[in-house]
Write a structure and sequence with these properties.
The complex is a heterodimer. By secondary structure, chain A is α+β, with helices and mostly antiparallel strands. Helix content of chain A is about 50%, strand content about 15%. In chain A, helix 5 (about 85-120) packs antiparallel against helix 7, helix 11 runs parallel beside helix 23 and helix 23 (about 630-655) packs across helix 24 (about 660-695). Chain A is elongated. The N and C termini of chain A lie far apart (about 85 Å). Chain B is built from 19 helices and four strands. In chain B, the strands form two sheets. Chain B has a two-stranded antiparallel sheet with strand order 1-2. Chain B has a two-stranded antiparallel ribbon with strand order 3-4. In chain B, a hairpin with a 2-residue loop joins strand 3 and strand 4. Chain B is globular and about 75 Å long. The chains are: A alpha+beta, B mainly alpha. The interface between A and B is large, with 75 and 69 residues.
C-alpha cells in the first residue's frame, strides 16, 4: 500500500471545545480521605519548615500547647489566660495548620490519582530484544537501554519509548491520551513513527528502536509531573515566597518587641495572645494556599489533556505576548475541500474537471479525494485507462502531484507556480487568463491548484479553506489580553491575507517554510516579546525549543516532544489558547489571594489590639464591638483558620478569568479581593464573635 | 483660617518649583550640557575629579558605585570627627572645649547620614570652625550622597547604567546644592539672619540682666540645612530661633526648601523615564498623603488640649513658636518629618497626641516626600511592591517600566521594608525594657513610649528631629542610635543600588494592552493603600500604645 501523506491526521477534537473541558481521567476514590490523612502526615516539622509562614504557625502551636499543659509556664500574672482559653487557641492553630496541609494534600491527591493510573500501565513487561545476530532474547523491560531494538507483536505492550524502525501496526494509546481509537504507527513518517512505552500494539507487529533509558520515558516524566514529586517552585512563586517570608519577619519583629513596650505602661502581654496576634498578622491565608494553587494550576493543565514539563512553563504561558500559529489545522480545518473548477485557455469546465479527476486518481489526501468527489458530482469521470497508470506522490520540493499514464502522458496538479514551471519545461505556454483565475481564488481566501495535461494548462481548482468556527472571537479575546497572533502558512500572500483577515489574526507570514518559524520567533523575541507556538514535525523541534512556550502535538515526533515544554495529548493546536488562559488564571489566583490575605490584617488588628491592650486605653479601637477580649481573639483566630478551607475551592479552581485588558482585570480583582479582603474579615469576625459568645465558649 | 491659606500657598509653591527644579536636576544628572553653567563649572568639577583620580567611567557593577560612596563617606565622617574631637582654638570665640568622644562620634555619624540628630546644645558645644568645617561640610556631602543614590536608582529603574558616584556627588554639590543654598542664604541674610565670625555679643537686657548672644555664620548654614534636608540647628532652638528663622516669610521659604528637592526629584524621575504623567501622579499621591497628615496635625493643635478646654479656649500653644502660631508649627512639623529634614520650629514633645502621631507616622513611612534622593527611591520601592502584589492579578508576571519584577527586586525591596522596623522597634524595645537605667525618659505612660520610639525612628529614617524630653546625651543613647543611623542609611542604600543595577540588566518588554499600566489614577490609589498598609501595619501596635492610647486618655474614653 502506498500512502501519499502521513496516514495519521491529528485527531480532530470531538464535540465543542467547552464540552471537552475537564476530560475526566481515571480517579481513585477516597481522595478526601487520603487528603485528611496527609494533612496530619504533613505536620512533620521537616515538611512544614519548607513554608516559612506555616512554620511560624507550627512553632506558635507548640507554644500554646505548652501553655495549655502548664498555664504558668510563660507568665505568673493571675490575669494570664487560663487553660481552657489556651486549649481552644491551640486547637484553632492546629486547625489552621491542618487546613493548609489539607489544601496542599487535596491538590496533590488529584495529581497522585492520575499518576497511579499511569503507573499501572508501567507494570514491568517482558520485551523481546533483538540481538546482533538477529535472534531474539526475552528481557525485562527495565533492562532496556537507549539504542536497543525490540520486536513487539499484536497484543503486547510497548516496553519503552522509541521510534519505529520497521513495520506498520495499530497502537492503542488510550493509557496516555484517553482516546480509545487505535492509531497507526509505521516507520519513517513524521509523527507516526514515535511510540510511547506503556501503550499496546493491537494489530500487526513493529520493530522499535528504544530512545529512552528506563525511568526517563514519557510516562515516567508524566508521572513525576502530575505527582508533583519534582515540583520546583516557579520564579513568581519564589518571589512571592520571599515577600511572604519577609512580611512574616517584619510582623515577628513587630510582635516580639511589644512586651517591653507594653510593660512600660504596665499592660501585660500574655505570650499566648502574642502568638495569636502574630499568627493573625502573618499572611497565613496565602501562605497556606500557595503550593495548592501551583499544584492545582498544573493539574488544570493536565485536565485539558496537556502535559507540562514544569510549572514554570505553565506560568510562562500567562506572560505570552505572541502566538505563532500554523494556519492549517489550527486556524482552518485541516482539510481543504475542492469548491469549484475555473477553466482557462479556452478549456471547458468539464474538460478541466475530467483532467483533474484523472490527476487526482491516486491522491488519497482529503484534498485529492474532494477533487474526485467534486468532479464526480459534475459527472466528469475520466475515461483514461487508470489501471495501467501510476501515481506521482506530492512532495514539498516539487509542490505537485499527479498521474503518469502508461502511454507517457503526464497529468499534473499542484501549486500554480509549480505547474507553470512544469509546463514551461515541457515547452508549453501559460494561458493569459491563468493569473486572473489564480487571483480570483486567492482573493476568496482559497488555495488555487493548477491542473495540466502535459504542456497544457487546463485551469485552476479552487480549494476552499474553512476557518474553524469561533476563531475570530478567540483572537479578539487574545487581543484584549494583549496577545498578538501571527499566522504561518505556505499559501501565497493574497490567500494568506484573506484568511488572516477573516480569522482576525494580527499578522501573517505567507509562503512560509518550516525554517521561517524559528526566524519569526527570534524576531519577536528580539522585540522583547514572549512567544508560544505549536508544532509536531521534526523540523519544528528547533522552533519549539526556541519559543518560550512550545507545545508539541502528541501525534508529533519524539524530537518535537522533547524540544517542547508541553505536550498536548489530544493533538489539538488551538488548545494553546486555553493554556494561556490557565497560565494567567494561575497568576491571578496567586495575586488575588495574596492581596486578600494582606488586606485581612487591618480587621485582625482591630480585633486583637483592643482586646490585648484594653487596659492601656485602647478599648475604643474595638470598632466591631466584640463581646469580650478573649472572644475577640478567638474569633479573629477562628476566622483566620476558617478562611483557608473557605478559599480552597477558589485556589483549586482558580479565580474566574474573563479575557480583558489589564486595566479591567485589575479594577475587577481589586474590588473583589482587595476591598473584599478589607471588609469581609470585619463581618466574619463579628459573626464568629456572636457565635462564640452565644455558645459561651469563653 | 490663615493656617489653611498658608498650606495652600505652600503646596502651590512646591508644585510650582518642582518642574523647574526637576528639569534642572534632570539636566545635571542626565549630563545634558547647560551652556552657562558648564563653562564655569566644568573646569572646577574636572579639577576635583582629576585630583581624586576619577576618570568618570560609569559603574559596571553595583560595587563600582557603592565602593566610592562608602569610602568617601568614611573619609568625610573621619574629617568631621577630627574637627569635633579636637575643636581647636581657631574660630572658637567662646573657647569651647572638645566634645565628649561618644557625643562627637554620634554627631559625626548623625550628620554624615543626613540625619542630624543632636544630642548636645550647639551654641554651648561647638565652635564656628566645627559648625562650618564639620557640620556644614557634612550638610553638603550627605545631601549630595543622597541625591547621587536617588539618581543612580532612578537610572537603574529606567534601564540605564547606574552612573559614576564621584561625578554625581560633585555635580550635586556644584550644580544643585551650592547654587540653591547661596540664593537662599542671601534671602535669609536680607531678612536678618546673621553671617559673621565675630563671635558672641554681650548685651544688657531691658530687665537689666547681662546676656551673651551667640552669633555666627548662620545664614549660609541655615540655607543648606533646609535645602539639603539636613535639619541640624546652629542653635539648640533650631528653626524656632529668630537668627535661624527670622520671620514668617523665611519660615514659609524654609518649609518650601525642605520639599523642593524631593518634589523636584520626583519630577526629574518622570523626565528620566520619559513618562511625566507617572511622576505627576506620584507627586500627587504624596501631596494628598501629606495634606491628610497636615490636616490631622493642624486640626489637633488648633483645637487645643481637650482636658483644658473647659478653662482655656484656643489652640495648644505649649512648645509652639508663637511668632508663627500653633497651626503653622504643626505644618512645619509635618513637613520636617515628611521630608527627612528634622529641623523644628517648635517642640515635638509638646504636640498633642494626634499632632505627635503625624510626625511619627511620617518617620515610619519615609516617603511623604522623603529624604534627599532616598525619598523618591523608597517611593519607587513601594511602587515595585505594589506592582508585584497587584500585578499578578492581571495574569502576567508583574512588570514595571517595561521590565519584569521578579525575585531579585522582591528580595531587595522587602529587605528595605524589613530594615526600618528592625532598627526602630528592636532598640526601642530594649530601651523600654530597662527604662529606668537606660532611657532618661521624662514622661511615664504612653507619651514615654512615643519619645523612645520617635528617637530611633528619627535615627533610622535619617530625619534627625527629636521628640525631646529625653535625656539623650548619654552613652547608651549615643551608641544605640548610631546603630540605627548607620543601619537606616547604608543598608537601604546598598539594597537600592543592587536592586537598580539588577533591574537595569533585565531585558525590556514592550508594553501592550495586557501590561499593567502604572501611570493611572487607579494604580496610584492602590499604591497609596499599599504604602499605608505595608508601611504602617508594622508600626501600628506601637502607634496604638503610644500616641493613640494617649489620645484616648485625653478624650476620656473608657
Amino acid at each position: 500500500m502506498t500512502t501519499l501523506q502521513p496516514p495519521i491526521f491529528p485527531r480532530m477534537p470531538r464535540g465543542r471545545r467547552d464540552q471537552r473541558r475537564y476530560t475526566e481521567r481515571p480517579r481513585s476514590d477516597g481522595l478526601l480521605g487520603r487528603a485528611v490523612v496527609q494533612s496530619f502526615v504533613k505536620l512533620d516539622p521537616r515538611l512544614t519548615a519548607r513554608n516559612p509562614v506555616m512554620f511560624v504557625v507550627w512553632c506558635g502551636t507548640l507554644v500554646t500547647l505548652a501553655a495549655t499543659l502548664e498555664p504558668r509556664l510563660f507568665e505568673l500574672s493571675p490575669e494570664a489566660p487560663g487553660r481552657g482559653f489556651n486549649a481552644l487557641l491551640s486547637l484553632i492553630l492546629l486547625a489552621t495548620l491542618l487546613f493548609a496541609n489539607f489544601a496542599e494534600a487535596l491538590a496533590e491527591g488529584r495529581g497522585k490519582a492520575q499518576a497511579d493510573a499511569l503507573r499501572r500501565t508501567q507494570a514491568s513487561t517482558q520485551a523481546r530484544r533483538l540481538l546482533p545476530d538477529g535472534s531474539e532474547a526475552l528481557v525485562d523491560s527495565s533492562a532496556l537501554r537507549r539504542g536497543d531494538q525490540v520486536r513487539v507483536s499484536q497484543g503486547e505492550m510497548i516496553p519503552a519509548d522509541g521510534e519505529v524502525v520497521d513495520g506498520v501496526a495499530a497502537v492503542d494509546e488510550s493509557a496516555i491520551t484517553g482516546e480509545s481509537a487505535p492509531v497507526l504507527k509505521e516507520a519513517g513518517s513524521d509523527g507516526a513513527s514515535s511510540v510511547t512505552g506503556g501503550t499496546r500494539v493491537v494489530s500487526d507487529k513493529l520493530l522499535i528502536r528504544i530512545t529512552a533509558d528506563p525511568g526517563k520515558g514519557f510516562i515516567d516524566r508524566m508521572i513525576a509531573l502530575v505527582e508533583g514529586a519534582e515540583r520546583s517552585k516557579t520564579p513568581n512563586e519564589i518571589a512571592l515566597t520571599v515577600l511572604l517570608a519577609v512580611l512574616t519577619q517584619v510582623f515577628l519583629i513587630a510582635v516580639a518587641t511589644l512586651p517591653p513596650v507594653a510593660a512600660y505602661i504596665n499592660s501585660p502581654t500574655p505570650v499566648v495572645v502574642l502568638v495569636a496576634l502574630l499568627v493573625a498578622l502573618i499572611p497565613t491565608t496565602i501562605g497556606g494556599l500557595l503550593s495548592a494553587i501551583g499544584i492545582a494550576g498544573m493539574d488544570r493543565v493536565a485536565q485539558f489533556n496537556v502535559i507540562a514539563t514544569s510549572g514554570r512553563a505553565v506560568e510562562a504561558c500567562g506572560d505570552i505576548t505572541t502566538l505563532v500559529l500554523d494556519k492549517t489545522g489550527t486556524i482552518t480545518l485541516g482539510n481543504r475541500l475542492a469548491e469549484e473548477f475555473l477553466p482557462v485557455g479556452g478549456h471547458s469546465e468539464r474538460e478541466l474537471a475530467t483532467t483533474a479527476h484523472a490527476a487526482s486518481w491516486f491522491d488519497t489526501t482529503p484534498e485529492g479525494k474532494s477533487i474526485v468527489r467534486l468532479a464526480e458530482k459534475l459527472d466528469a469521470v475520466t475515461a483514461l485507462p487508470m489501471d495501467t497508470a501510476t501515481g506521482l506522490e506530492f512532495s514539498a520540493r516539487t509542490r505537485l502531484s499527479g498521474t503518469d499514464l502508461a502511454d507517457g502522458n503526464e497529468l499534473r496538479k499542484g501549486a500554480v507556480e509549480a505547474i507553470k514551471g512544469f509546463v514551461r519545461s515541457r515547452g508549453g505556454t501559460v494561458p493569459a487568463d491563468l493569473d486572473a483565475a489564480y487571483e480570483r481564488v486567492s482573493r476568496l481566501g482559497g488555495t488555487p491548484l493548477a491542473v495540466c495535461w502535459n504542456a497544457e494548462i487546463f485551469g485552476v481548482i479552487h480549494l476552499k479553506d474553512i476557518i474553524k468556527p469561533g476563531m475570530r472571537e478567540r483572537f479578539d479575546q487574545l487581543r484584549r489580553m494583549g496577545i498578538r497572533s501571527v499566522m504561518l502558512t505556505g499559501d501565497n500572500a493574497i490567500t494568506a491575507g484573506v484568511i488572516a483577515r477573516e480569522a482576525g489574526v494580527d499578522d501573517f507570514i505567507a509562503e512560509a517554510t518550516p525554517e521561517d518559524k524559528i526566524a519569526v520567533i527570534q524576531a519577536e523575541q528580539r522585540l522583547g516579546r514572549l512567544v508560544a507556538m505549536t508544532g509536531d514535525g521534526t523540523n519544528d523541534a528547533p522552533a519549539l525549543a526556541q519559543a518560550n512556550v512550545g507545545v508539541a502535538m502528541n501525534s508529533g515526533t519524539q524530537a518535537a516532544k522533547e524540544a517542547a515544554n508541553m505536550v498536548d495529548l489530544d493533538s489539538d493546536p488551538t488548545k494553546l489558547i486555553d493554556i494561556v488562559t490557565i497560565g494567567k488564571q494561575l497568576l491571578i489566583t496567586r495575586g488575588a489571594l495574596t492581596t486578600f490575605s494582606i488586606a485581612n490584617d487591618v480587621a485582625k488588628y482591630f480585633a486583637i489590639l483592643p482586646a490585648l491592650f484594653g487596659k492601656a486605653g485602647l478599648a475604643p479601637l474595638n470598632l466591631m464591638g466584640l463581646a469580650s477580649p478573649q472572644s475577640a481573639i478567638l474569633s479573629a483566630m477562628v476566622f483566620n483558620a476558617l478562611i483557608i478551607p473557605a478559599l480552597v475551592p477558589l485556589a483549586l479552581k482558580g479565580v474566574a478569568f474573563r479575557p480583558s485588558t489589564a486595566d479591567q482585570l485589575l479594577r475587577r480583582n481589586l474590588l473583589v479581593y482587595g476591598l473584599g479582603g478589607l471588609v469581609v474579615p470585619f463581618i466574619g469576625i463579628k459573626l464568629i464573635d456572636l457565635a462564640v459568645s452565644a455558645l459561651r465558649l469563653v | 483660617m490663615t493656617d489653611w491659606f498658608q498650606v495652600v500657598v505652600f503646596v502651590a509653591l512646591v508644585w510650582a518649583t518642582a518642574p523647574v527644579l526637576g528639569l534642572h536636576l534632570f539636566q545635571v544628572f542626565d549630563a545634558q550640557p547647560q551652556p552657562r553653567l558648564d563653562r564655569w563649572l566644568i573646569p572646577v568639577e574636572n579639577g576635583v575629579l582629576r585630583f581624586i583620580g576619577e576618570r568618570g567611567r560609569p559603574a559596571e557593577q553595583t560595587w563600582d558605585y557603592l565602593r566610592p560612596l562608602l569610602f568617601s563617606n568614611l573619609f568625610f565622617g573621619l574629617v568631621a570627627l577630627a574637627f569635633l574631637l579636637a575643636q581647636p582654638p581657631w574660630l572658637n570665640p567662646q573657647g569651647l572645649p572638645p566634645m565628649r568622644w561618644d557625643t562627637a562620634l554620634h554627631t559625626a555619624i548623625s550628620f554624615l547620614t543626613n540625619t542630624d540628630q543632636q544630642h548636645y546644645t550647639p551654641e554651648q558645644s561647638l565652635s564656628d570652625l566645627s559648625q562650618l568645617g564639620a557640620l556644614q561640610f557634612l550638610f553638603f556631602t550627605s545631601a549630595a550622597t543622597g541625591l547621587a543614590v536617588g539618581f543612580a536608582f532612578i537610572r537603574g529603574l529606567c534601564g540605564r547604567p547606574l552612573g559614576n558616584f564621584n561625578t554625581d556627588l560633585i555635580r550635586a554639590i556644584t550644580r544643585v546644592l551650592i547654587p540653591l543654598s547661596f540664593v537662599f542664604a542671601l534671602v535669609l541674610l536680607v531678612n536678618g539672619a546673621p553671617m559673621t565670625l565675630a563671635g558672641p555679643v554681650m548685651l544688657r537686657t531691658l530687665e537689666g540682666a547681662d546676656q551673651i548672644l551667640v552669633r555666627g555664620p548662620v545664614a549660609g548654614y541655615e540655607a543648606i540645612k533646609q535645602i539639603g534636608e539636613n535639619g541640624g540647628g546652629f542653635f539648640g532652638a533650631n528653626s524656632a530661633h529668630p537668627f535661624e528663622n527670622p520671620n514668617p516669610f523665611t519660615n514659609l521659604l524654609a518649609m518650601v526648601a525642605m520639599f523642593a528637592i524631593p518634589a523636584a526629584t520626583i519630577d526629574a524621575f518622570g523626565r528620566f523615564l520619559g513618562n511625566r504623567r507617572q511622576a505627576t501622579l506620584l507627586l500627587l499621591l504624596v501631596t494628598v498623603l501629606f495634606l491628610a497628615l497636615a490636616a490631622v496635625a493642624i486640626k489637633a493643635e488648633q483645637g487645643g488640649n481637650p482636658l483644658l478646654t473647659a478653662w482655656l479656649s484656643g489652640p495648644n500653644l505649649e512648645g509652639k513658636e508663637v511668632r508663627f502660631g500653633a497651626g503653622i508649627t504643626a505644618l512645619f512639623a509635618t513637613i520636617t518629618t515628611g521630608s527627612m529634614t528634622g529641623a523644628v520650629n517648635g517642640a515635638m514633645d509638646s504636640l498633642l497626641p494626634l499632632g505627635g502621631l503625624v510626625p511619627l507616622f511620617n518617620l515610619f513611612l519615609q516617603v511623604i516626600f522623603g529624604g534627599q534622593g532616598t525619598g523618591v527611591a523608597y517611593l519607587l520601592v513601594f511602587l515595585i511592591l505594589t506592582v508585584f502584589l497587584t500585578g499578578l492579578m492581571v495574569g502576567r508576571t508583574p512588570e514595571l517600566f517595561g521590565r519584569k519584577v521578579e525575585k531579585g527586586e522582591i528580595v531587595w525591596s522587602s529587605l528595605i521594608l524589613l530594615i526600618h522596623p528592625l532598627f526602630v522597634l528592636v532598640p526601642a524595645a530594649i530601651t523600654l525594657a530597662d527604662a529606668p537605667t537606660l532611657s532618661g525618659i521624662s514622661n511615664p505612660g504612653s507619651h514615654g513610649i512615643s519619645q523612645v520610639v520617635y528617637e530611633y525612628a528619627s535615627a533610622s529614617a535619617n530625619n534627625g528631629s527629636g521628640f525631646e524630653g529625653l535625656g539623650d546625651g548619654t552613652l547608651w543613647w549615643n551608641l544605640s542610635t548610631i546603630l540605627s543611623l548607620l543601619g537606616g542609611r547604608y543598608l537601604p542604600i546598598a539594597a537600592l543600588l543592587l536592586l537598580a543595577a539588577g533591574f537595569a540588566r533585565k531585558p525590556k518588554v514592550p508594553p501592550g494592552p495586557g501590561t499593567l499600566a502604572t501611570d493611572t489614577g487607579l494604580f496610584t490609589v492602590v499604591t497609596g493603600v499599599v504604602i499605608l498598609i505595608l508601611g504602617a501595619l508594622t508600626f501600628f501596635p506601637v502607634l496604638a500604645l503610644g500616641p493613640i492610647a494617649e489620645a484616648f486618655s485625653l478624650t476620656g474614653a473608657p
